[in-house]
Amino acid sequence: MSHFPVHTLDSAPDQSKDLMQLTAKNFGFVPNLISVMATSPSLTEAYLSVAGIFANSSLTPTEQQVVLLTVSYYHQCTYCVAAHTAIAGMKNVGPEIVTAIRQNKPLSDSKLQALREFTNLLLDNRGWANDEDIQNFLNAGYQAQHLLDILVGIAQKTLSNFTNHLAKTPLDNEFEEVAWSPVS
To answer: How is the chain split into domains, by residue range?
Structure first.
């Protein structure tokens, strides 16, 4: 028995219906993640709000996907790794970047690798970073704003990754082609 239904517009709480319709307008369909989140209109609104804020952050679309894929890989979220593989393709992120993250291999771009490593460091240390780690990140070509914007991406993906873990969100047909399983 699932405690977390995959809602339709007919079954969703009234407060989630507008959010689901907005998502359908933006994506062309309502991803199962949003359909599951719809059980909690507050979670749905929070996730979509944070996602919108992160999309307007100082990080480029490629850098954003590096953060989102890195967090999803870190949390071993099969749903979000697949979804962001597809989204990264739509945002013209190089497939070699996505493949490296999916396979837990280093990125050939040293600046993006620094971003990935710093994101992992923040996750490993629950937000703590020493001065040397921060300076190494800045030396890679980033600024303090980028460092803080990573936190928005971590927040976004923590909401979705943990939702998917609790709900065992089924992968959408639209993402089946890029399904992912953790590397053993």
So the answer is: 14-167
